């Protein structure tokens, strides 16, 4: 009789699964369903997609979207023993594991990388999100709010970190630089 090899389930490590870009959420869902169906929950404890909130301002309206921080990658905390790697590789949308050689064994992430990514995920959840605007230098805008309401101007500088833009408006026939919040203007 062959000896049954016992797997130490406490030795879970983080691995990167390469997925078809844009299908990370589906891949995560497929992995979770398949692991549950095959009763392999002891082997795979977490499936994560690091995401960030992006606030976009269009026509003076603020919209929040969630964007994958690492497009095409899904993180899993697992013990890759027995049929687990094979099951994960055969899930729709999965390209394979991130490793040193093509088709080779999956290489676990270093603890420092995991902590940095997980720390980043926590940070992004806590933060308000990054602001992405469609404003570029040289575009014409109309001021829709504030003391310069109704004035038209040209964008001189975009300050994403401060959520402001510097616009040159004509006041009494003279070009005057004005600093405005993103919500105070709309593209013409």
User: Any idea how many domains?
Assistant: 2
Q: What series of H and E elements makes up the topology?
A: EHEEEEHEHEEEEEE
Q: What's the shape?
A: elongated
Distance between the termini: 79 Å
CATH structural class of the largest domain = Alpha Beta
Give the radius of gyration: 24 Å
Task: Tell me the structural class.
Answer: alpha+beta
Q: For the residues shown, what is the average pLDDT?
A: 80
The proportion of residues in beta strands is 35-45%
| Fold-level CATH name of the largest domain | Alpha-Beta Plaits
- Provide the spatial order of strands within the biggest beta sheet: 11-10-9-8-12
Contiguous helical run count: 3
Low-pLDDT sequence parts: 1-6
Give the strand tally.
12
Relevant CATH superfamily of the largest domain: NusG, N-terminal domain
Helix content: 10-25%
What profile does the largest beta sheet have?
A: 5 strands, antiparallel
- What is the CATH architecture term of the largest domain? 2-Layer Sandwich
Detailed description of the structure:
The strands form three sheets. The chain has a five-stranded antiparallel sheet with strand order 11-10-9-8-12, with no helix packed on it. It has a four-stranded antiparallel sheet with strand order 2-5-1-6. It has 188 residues and is α+β, with helices and mostly antiparallel strands. The model is unreliable at 1-6 (pLDDT under 50). 19% of the residues lie in helices and 39% in strands.
């Amino acid at each position: 009789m062959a000896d049954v090899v016992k797997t130490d389930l406490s030795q879970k490590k983080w691995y990167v699964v390469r997925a078809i870009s844009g299908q990370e959420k589906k891949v995560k869902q497929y992995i979770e369903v398949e692991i549950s169906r095959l009763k392999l929950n002891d082997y795979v404890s977490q499936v994560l997609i690091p995401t960030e909130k992006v606030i976009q301002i269009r026509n003076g309206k603020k919209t929040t979207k969630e964007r994958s921080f690492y497009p095409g990658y899904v993180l899993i905390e697992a013990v890759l023993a027995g049929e687990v790697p094979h099951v994960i590789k055969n899930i729709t949308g999965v390209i394979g594991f991130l490793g040193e050689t093509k088709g080779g064994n999956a290489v676990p992430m270093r603890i420092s990388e995991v902590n940095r990514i997980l720390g980043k995920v926590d940070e992004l959840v806590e933060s308000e999100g990054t602001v992405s605007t469609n404003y570029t230098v040289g575009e014409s805008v109309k001021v829709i709010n504030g003391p310069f309401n109704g004035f038209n101007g040209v964008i001189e500088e975009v300050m994403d970190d401060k959520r402001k833009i510097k616009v040159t408006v004509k006041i009494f026939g003279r070009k005057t630089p004005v600093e405005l919040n993103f919500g105070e203007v709309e593209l013409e």
